[in-house]
Write a structure and sequence with these properties.
By secondary structure, this protein is α/β, with parallel strands linked by helices. It is built from eight helices and seven strands. It has a seven-stranded parallel beta sheet, sandwiched between helices. Strand 5, helix 5 and strand 6 form a beta-alpha-beta unit. Helix 1 packs across helix 8. The termini are far apart. The model has no long low-confidence stretch (mean pLDDT about 95).
Length: about 250
């Protein structure tokens, strides 16, 4: 029987790459997102590739909405073998004392509460079965703050500690827990961060060959396919000319 993977934030960036990589690796995919049109477009692409999948429309920030969507999954799709908590974003790059209250709320609600919501609803069944895998998409930003990163960095630091805490909590089971911490990845991330300012977003990647969503998805699939006794606890993935969250050599 094929394993089933549930991926949040599935319609773009790392999430979309995870959907395709897991699907091509033989998994059944539940693609979660909050944009119906994007989910429909992704579904058509998956059909063309012959990837077995369903879509799940729900915003991870909204607990009741998410639970309703999970409860509505067909019975044969309710056993989730791998959960990829990918939904997340950064907004703004202002000093903390000039930050946007709205941006802060969205980042905290998505990056922390959304991850917790999905985990709380999906992981109890894994624990009851004694097997499963949770893969959280963190960030190098969770290791140390950088200029303008303040609240975003804090949310990704929370992802690290939440992931570590879950790993401790399920150590008496065969549920595995992984934190993947990407560095500079060229996706729609920076365009979202700068509220659609394409020129400013493009400057983020000038002078360096950044990672791609596929690079991170490859790591996620590798972690999921490791032997059952092997737990890939944490992986930091950086572009070759990136030394840390704040050290980037541009050529």
């Amino acid at each position: 029987m094929k394993k089933t993977v549930l991926i949040s934030g599935a319609t773009s960036g790392i999430g979309r790459s995870c959907v395709l990589k897991f699907g091509r690796a033989g998994y059944r995919v539940i693609a979660n997102g909050r944009d119906a049109d994007r989910l429909s477009s992704l579904s058509n692409e998956l059909k063309d590739e012959g990837i077995e999948h369903i879509t799940m429309l729900a915003d991870v920030r909204h607990r009741d909405e998410l639970k309703e969507a999970l409860d509505a999954l067909p019975e044969e799709w309710k056993r989730v073998d791998v959960l990829v908590n990918n939904a997340g974003l950064a907004l703004g790059l202002e000093p903390e004392y000039q930050g946007s209250f709205e941006d802060w709320d969205i980042m905290v609600d998505t990056n922390i509460k959304g991850l917790l919501n999905m985990t709380r609803f999906v992981v109890p069944d894994m624990v009851a079965r004694g097997e499963g895998h949770v893969i959280n998409i963190g960030s190098v930003a969770g290791d140390a703050a950088y200029a303008g990163g303040n609240v975003y960095c804090a949310t990704k630091a929370a992802v690290k500690t939440i992931t570590d805490g879950l790993r401790i909590d399920v150590a008496d089971t065969a549920v595995r827990v992984t934190n993947i911490k990407p560095g500079l990845v060229e996706t729609n991330f920076s365009r979202v961060r700068f509220h659609g300012d394409n020129e400013r977003a493009d400057n983020v990647y000038k002078g360096i060959k950044p990672l791609t969503g596929d690079d991170i998805a490859d790591v996620a699939v590798y972690a999921a396919q490791a032997p059952a006794h092997v737990q890939i606890a944490e992986v930091l993935v950086l572009a070759t000319h990136q030394g840390s969250g704040s050290v980037i050599v541009r050529k």
